[in-house]
Amino acid sequence: MKTLTLANGGKNMDMFEKISEHQQIVYCNDKETGLKAIIAIHNTTLGPALGGCRMQPYETVEAALEDVLRLSKGMTYKCAAADVDFGGGKAVIIGDPLQDKTPELFRAFGQFVDSLNGRFYTGTDMGTTPDDFVHALKETNCIVGVDEVYGGSGDSSIPTAQGVIYGLRATNKTVWGTDDLYGKSYAIQGLGKVGYKVAEQLIEAGADLYVTDINQHAIDKVTQKAKASGVGIKVVKGEEIYSVPADVFVPCALGGIINDQTIDQLKVKAVAGSANNQLLAIKHGRILQEKGILYAPDYIVNAGGLIQVADELYEPNKARVLTKTRAIYQTLLNVYEESSNNNITTIEAANRFCEQRIEARSRRNNFFSHEKRPKWSVRV
Ligand SMILES: NC(=O)C1=CN([C@@H]2O[C@H](COP(=O)(O)OP(=O)(O)OC[C@H]3O[C@@H](n4cnc5c(N)ncnc54)[C@H](O)[C@@H]3O)[C@@H](O)[C@H]2O)C=CC1
Ligand SMILES: O=C(O)CCC(=O)C(=O)O
Fold it and tell me: Is residue 2 predicted with pLDDT exceeding 70?
């Protein structure tokens, strides 16, 4: 790689060091609507960047940047693991999803997405819903996951939750020798779009639950469902979720929740959930392994939504989405086997598999001829 000679000898380049793994960062500022957002494109080797947009009241711009850098990198790996022809990108909007949403804010966001001219496609993540993006869709076609009546493939949290269930089954099979969900207890953190749907399926399977959420309405909804079905449910407050005597921890809210403080509290035998970036640092994968806790790499388990929105950009096909989501079960079993055979952690095994796949695919993507249109002729 060529290194440029910099006038000041390369000092004060901290920001470029921080984003050194990424291709492009876009800061979006719209005075009229109050929009403050960051779009990060990590890698487009496999195709245009694709990733949801999170809305959160970040305390600092640095915290928002940190989040979007980590989330967009995760998407590069998620796309590779799910074998979709897209690259890694993500966006964050700085604001309170309960107070700061307006149609105009999302239209302004759509205008920034459009300015990237097909390099970035986006839809929902934590704090945003498909309806928010109906407004953004008025400004750009690079929106995924809106309702079918608007031409989208619908709520992507449905296949995400389905994928989590396949991930839980593969995890149970590896730990207990059976992929039944029944007979085990699950500690779910976050009962939003994905977490609630996972809880619903676990309740239907007759599993016992521990749950927590900061939103009382979300808790009421799930406890009513559990009671109507006659399964055991215990609601716990905040941090208590880490120390409950459940079999599996299912994080479905924030990232970074597997860290030095929480690992010591965990009593579970496995961690498998939808939250992006569950490990605060890669070393926490090793610490979990040393404690005998099986970790299901998040970006493999939670790829169902990505599979659906990627599919939508070519031509939606629900049967194909289901087939590819079901494959999460086998991909995860392969990762567990690689980890065990090579004495590496499950996240190291998953990362290695994705990096090898990106490297192999990049050689195919280098080939250009006038007769053969680029394979990335997705909706722009
Ligand atoms: N929506 C999707 O299809 C996908 C979501 N994910 C990830 O899954 C996670 C959940 O996403 P969604 O369900 O879409 O978000 P959501 O915003 O619909 O739900 C998140 C839930 O977590 C709760 N929550 C927030 N902070 C909490 C805390 N400290 N303790 C307990 N609960 C808390 C919220 O009140 C909310 O009910 C996120 O990490 C997201 O990035 C990953 C892949 C796809
Ligand atoms: O679910 C989506 O809309 C996009 C996929 C995504 O952002 C994710 O998997 O984190």
Answer: no
For the segment 119-132, what is each residue's pLDDT rounded down to a tens digit? 999 999 999 999 99
Residue range(s) defining the domain that contains residue 353: 157-357
d(CA 363, CA 365) in angstroms, rounded, equals: 5
Closest listed ligand to the CA of 125: 1
User: 309 CB under 6 A from ligand 2?
Assistant: yes
Which residue ranges make up the annotated binding site for NAD(+)? 190-195
Q: Are 181 and 172 in contact (CB under 8 A)?
A: yes
- Does residue 106 form part of some domain? yes
The residue-averaged pLDDT of 126-144 equals 97
Is the CB of residue 193 below 6 angstroms from any atom belonging to ligand 1?
yes
pLDDT band at 373 (very low <50, low <70, confident <90, very high): low
Buried b vs exposed e over 31-52: b needs ≥16 C-beta within 10 Å?
eebebbbbbbbbbbbbbbbbbb
Whether residue 206 lies inside any domain: the answer is yes
**Same-domain status, 145 and 259:** no
The catalytic position among 90, 101, 184, 269 is 90
β-strands 53-56, 120-121 pairing: unpaired
pLDDT higher than threshold 70 for residue 3: no
Co-location of 193 and 110 in the same domain: no
217 and 112 within one domain = no
Domain co-membership, 211 together with 353 = yes
User: Is the C-beta atom of 127 inside 6 A of ligand 1?
Assistant: yes
How many independent structural domains does the chain possess? 2
pTM, full prediction: 0.94
- pLDDT at position 370 over 70: no
